[in-house]
Amino acid sequence: MAKYNITPTREKEARYRTLVNSAYMDELQQKILEIIVLKKKYLDKNYSARQLAIDLGTNTRYVSAVVNSRFHQNFTSFVNTYRINDAKTILSDRRQSKLTMEEVADLVGFANRQSFYGSFYRMLGMTPREYKMRKLRIEK
Fold first, then answer.
1. Around Cβ 12, how many Cβ atoms within 10 Å?
2. How far apart are CA 20 and CA 63, in angstroms?
3. DSSP code at position 106
4. Are the beta carbons of 48 and 13 closer than 8 angstroms?
5. Which of 98, 111, 124, 134 has fewest C-beta within 10 Å?
6. Band of the pLDDT at 59, cuts 50, 70, 90?
């Protein structure tokens, strides 16, 4: 796994997560999903937890608390999950088979090919190229 500079994540308990009440967490959770998923902000490679907090009218600690406790991921992993799902769709589509990996990474919101490959490998245990080859070979 050293190939993509992947280090195992460690569980840690942040005290501020318990400071956000349940009702406010529910509200933020819905708004986060609306902004990230429905408005497809995950496609914006410059969209950050800080910008999300500004859009929500709250602070990054609350955004982090909600994403960690409700989605069981950090902000980057949460956003990358949607990016990788879009990438899987593109990589499985024969009509888009001429796209380079850099173009796919750019289309789904990754800033560069390396972060795309690392996130993809972390999530699926294979590179985007391996995924594409398997999908296109199966569909023949």
1. 6
2. 10
3. H
4. no
5. 98
6. very high
Residue 1 lies in a domain: no
For residue 124 the two structure tokens come to 């699926």
Give dist(CA 60, CA 110) in Å, integer.
Answer: 21
N residues, the chain? 140
The last residue of one of the domains, among 44, 72, 100, is 72
pTM of the entire structure? 0.84
**What is the greatest pairwise CA distance in the chain?**
53
SS3 content of the chain, % helix, strand, coil (to 5): 70, 0, 30
Residues in contact with 22: Cβ distance below 8 Å, sequence separation at least 6, in sequence order? none
- CA 126 to CA 140: how far, in whole Å? 21
Coil, helix or strand at residue 59: coil
Task: Using alpha carbons, select from 92, 88, 97 the residue that is nearest to residue 123.
Answer: 88
What CATH code is carried by the domain that includes residue 89?
1.10.10.60
Domain with 123 in it: 79-138
How distant is the alpha carbon of residue 7 from its chain centre?
17
Cβ–Cβ under 8 Å, residues 108 and 64: no
Q: Which pair of tokens denotes residue 38?
A: 């429905």
